Amino acid sequence: MRPALFVLALAACGDATPAIIDARIVDGATGDGGVGDDAAVIDGPVVSPDAPVVVADAAVVDGPVVSPDAPVVVADAAVADGPVVSPDAAAIDGPVVSPDAAAPDAPTVAPDAAVPEFFGPTPYLSPGDRPFTVAAAQFEDFEDGALNTLGVTASTFSIASSFGPGLIDSVDVDDGTLDGTCQPGCDDLWANGSVTFTFDAAALGGLPTHVGLVWTDGGPGSTVTLEAFDAAGVSLGTRAGTGFADGAFTGGTAEDRFFGVRWAGGVRQVRLSNTSGGIEVDHLYYGR
Fold first, then answer.
1. Distances 227 to 37, 209, 230 between C-alpha atoms, Å
2. CB count in 10 Å sphere of residue 85
3. Which residue among 12, 45, 91, 172 is least enclosed by CB atoms within 10 Å?
């Protein structure tokens, strides 16, 4: 049996690479490079077996032949001198960050943690006029003639009623009626121009974060100042007020003013003072 010969018929297309136009199996043997007697006639130049073959109708590519494994470049892609970005991406003069990322130099803090917040002086007739309330609080109204709430001491202590019942400037509500006065039967703390309250963190389970008290009397025209201190004795700041001290000391309540401080770091001391005369203080409130 004679081996089959596979013959390609090609046509020359000018200067283009030859294209396959016909392929037939020749049932004949070759001899010395020839073809069998039954071989079909090839219409066109004989091409070397090693010549590149291009499929008929293939488009001519003006460029080098690319390996099948070479990366494909998308037509119309823009040339970038840097990392590839989305076509819609805006130019950024800096590192790319998440749209929701917070500014690195703007840490978030709790509202009460940044700086101490001072309150007052504001008119005060009853606990309902206090600007804050805490769950674990101590409240001293001195109506029993003593300072005996948990975890606090005073730098000086006298009861106003010790000077006589007509010289008491207690908070209005302490007699049970809001009527512009609290006599007789009321009481408050008296000091010689200044009083400091110190809080005991061990007794209270931590320093209070909220402290308030009411100035009820002092010398006429006084400037009244509250100063607060942290656990290390460093001042947290002051709050002062003037123009409300009327000089009356017979039980009137129109001049009574609330002063307070709030700070998450804890308040160890508060000092209330006025610039003239003695001072009367009532409704000490503290907690955390």
1. 122, 14, 11
2. 12
3. 91
Say which residue the tokens 């071989």 belong to: 39
Q: Are 274 and 126 in contact (CB under 8 A)?
A: no
In a 13 Å sphere around the CA of 203, the CA atoms on its Cβ side amount to: 14
Alpha-carbon distance 103 to 72, whole Å? 40
Question: Which residues share a beta bridge with 269?
Answer: 198, 229
pLDDT of residue 113: 55
- Output phi, psi for 223, to 5 deg: -95, 125
Backbone angles phi, psi at 174, to 5 degrees: -65, -15
Q: What is the pLDDT of residue 88?
A: 53
Are 24 and 161 part of one and the same domain? no
| Angle 116-117-119 from CA coordinates, rounded to 5° | 145
Cβ contacts of residue 23 below 8 Å, gap of 6+?
Answer: 6, 7, 8, 9
Contact 286, 229 (CB under 8 A): no
User: What is the count of structural domains for the chain?
Assistant: 2
Cα separation of 241 and 121, whole Å?
Answer: 6
Phi (first) and psi of residue 117, to 5 degrees: -115, 125
Rounded-to-integer distance, Cα 203 and Cα 64, Å: 88
pTM, 2 dp: 0.61
Domain of residue 152, residue span:
117-287
Token pair belonging to 42? 């090839």
Please name the amino acid found at residue 224: V
pLDDT along the chain (288 residues), means of 10: 40 42 40 43 47 44 50 44 48 45 40 80 97 95 94 93 73 88 82 97 98 95 97 98 84 91 98 95 97
